[in-house]
Each structure stands twice: as C-alpha cells, then as structure tokens.
Automatic annotation (TrEMBL):
GO terms for biological process: D-alanine transmembrane transport; L-alanine transport; L-isoleucine import across plasma membrane; L-valine import across plasma membrane. GO terms for molecular function: ATP binding; ATP hydrolysis activity; L-isoleucine transmembrane transporter activity; L-phenylalanine transmembrane transporter activity; L-valine transmembrane transporter activity. Keywords: ATP-binding, Nucleotide-binding, Transport. It comes from the Bacteria. It comes from Devosia ginsengisoli. GO terms for cellular component: plasma membrane. SUPFAM superfamilies: P-loop containing nucleoside triphosphate hydrolases. InterPro entries: AAA+_ATPase, ABC_AA/LPS_Transport, ABC_transporter-like_ATP-bd, BCA_ABC_TP_C, P-loop_NTPase. This is ABC transporter ATP-binding protein.
Amino acid sequence: MLLKLTAVSKRFGAVVAADAVDLHVAKGEALGIIGANGAGKSSLFNLVTGVMRPDSGSIEFEGRDVTRVAVRERCHAGIGRSFQIPRPFESLTVFENLMVAAEFGRLGRTGDAVAVCGGVLEATGLSAKANIVAGRLTLLDRKRLELARAMATQPNVLLLDEIAGGLTEAECHELVALIRSLHASGITIVWIEHIVHALLSVVSRLVVLEFGKKIADGEPHAVMNEPAVRRSYLGLEEVAS
Ligand SMILES: Nc1ncnc2c1ncn2[C@@H]1O[C@H](COP(=O)(O)OP(=O)(O)OP(=O)(O)O)[C@@H](O)[C@H]1O
C-alpha cells in the first residue's frame, strides 16, 4: 500500500474535520474524494502532507510511519500536492517556478533539477511558455503550472485539491486530459473535486466524506448511487416506494 491512514482524527473545538478516517491508496491508483463544503477534504490533505498533525491515528507512506514527520520531509519522501488557489511566484517565469519547486523537493539545487523541470514542462504542455512570467498566464495555464510545480518535486503520489474550479467546460476537458496523461505515466493520484463529471472521467475509486467521516468508498458509479451519498452530497431524498 502506498498511502495508509488508520483511524485519523482531527478536531477544531466542536468541529470534527477528520473522524477516525481509514483510507488506503494503492500504487498506481487514481482515487477521487468528494464531500459537501466543510466535509474535511482539504483537512485530509493537510494531514497527509503534514501541514496539520492528527489528534490521533496514524499515517503511513510506503510502509513508513510519517504521522509526525515535517512537511518538507514528506515532500522528499514523495508526497506532492497542488492547491485550490494557484499561488505561483507571480514575477518568476514558469521555468523558474518549477526550479523553486524542484529545489524544495527531493532534487535540491542540482543539475538534475534542470533536466527534471524540462521534462515536467513537456509533460504539462508548458514548454512554449517556459519563459513567461507566471503572473501573465491564463487561468488554464496557471492550473497547468500548479500541476507542474507539484510534479517538479517528483512525487510518488499527487494530491490534487479542486484543481478544475473556475475553468470553462472546454478548459476543464483539457485539464482532465493532462491529469489522465500524468496518471497514465505511472503517477498515483488522489483528487478532491466538486466537478464530479471531470473527476469520474479519471478516477477508478471514489471516497465520500461527511462531517469528517468517510461514508462511502468504492467503485465510483456504485458510490454515487448509495442512498447516504445521494442524501449527503447531492441533497436528494429517497422517494418513498
Ligand atoms: N485551521 C483550522 N481552524 C479551525 N477550523 C478549521 C481549520 N481548518 C479547517 N477547519 C474546519 O474544519 C472543517 C473541515 O474543513 P475543510 O477545509 O477540510 O473542508 P472541505 O471539505 O475541504 O471544504 P471545501 O469544500 O469548502 O473546501 C470546516 O468546518 C472548517 O471550518
């Protein structure tokens, strides 16, 4: 198992952001996570990346207990993440942004970082924009850069936090194609997304959170049809038969 959460809990006063969450992600998998606003999706990523420490429970990555390991060390171990709102260094070029990410990641300030960033530019369709400053990119290219920055840290698992938000349908289609190609190249993906049709075109397993609790986990279409999911996420009441 690449990533394994066991009974992970996190509270903020009366708010339960994670409620004894068990979650397994296998190498090469593409897993989707959905849940209403405030269900605890971003908190789960914060717990996995080390931004937050759980109150209880454990997190293993590639068989190693990383529950108390610092953010940068988890990044070096291969946990990469993109953020809901892309925040690149606006005045640096696309390539420079990737170099900063590569240096934060496991490559450090080495010659290999240049080669890796060149490969990431190509894989994310940004080669022609390498020398443009990030602040001048379109929203779709900012999303591409957000993915590329995560890829430049050379992750074994890529955590995507609502990366499709704000795009037009056509742009969303392009981003989905890019995520599919990254997954096809062998990277494990865990993707939180409100745009369910985009998510379902990539993932082969779906987890649903409600008030910090995992309420469903399985084949995406079967999960979407579970009564508890329809009630919680889609706000649909079952019609009495
Ligand atoms: N640092 C924090 N301090 C206090 N409460 C927090 C903190 N982080 C998250 N929370 C609370 O924990 C709950 C889960 O938040 P979280 O951001 O994980 O939800 P989410 O499912 O990602 O929501 P959204 O879809 O709106 O991004 C919310 O009630 C939120 O207000």
